[in-house]
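Each record in this resource describes a single protein on a pair of labelled lines. The shape at a given residue is found from the number at the same position. The record below illustrates this layout:

***
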Amino acid sequence: MAPRELPKLVPRAAAGMVTSAIRSIFEQLDESAASGQLRRVADSLAARFPAVAELLTDAEPDLLVHFMFPEAHRRQLRSTNPLERLNKEIKRRTAVVGIFPTRASLIRLVGMVLCEQDDEWQDGRRYFSPESIAQIDAPIDRQEVNPALLIAS
């Protein structure tokens, strides 16, 4: 079960409490603090919502993978809003046409939308600054790097 399916595991009355507890995990400043908070949240939810606690514990590497990136990127990486916005724009543009005469025409339209978005991210409103992108290739000051997190990133 994916973390997005968490609301299905709790009653509607408890959803706000569970959501705010989980949100506290992502508000931590570093990976060790977030990992500790995740364990505390999972322990506190285990008695009442064991499925939620198990899901959080199993998904810990995936939930905390954004801590492998520079701090400037973390807020953007933990959200799928830009991807959802891009998909919505593609859907809006393709709905105007309705039926495409060939597959190539669909690919041209979607490719054009993607090129426009890339131009916007490069020249207009930058999602990541060039300085923060340069930090990605900086050496990691960690003693142990989990290979699963490197693959996920």
Observations:
- The radius of gyration is 20 Å.
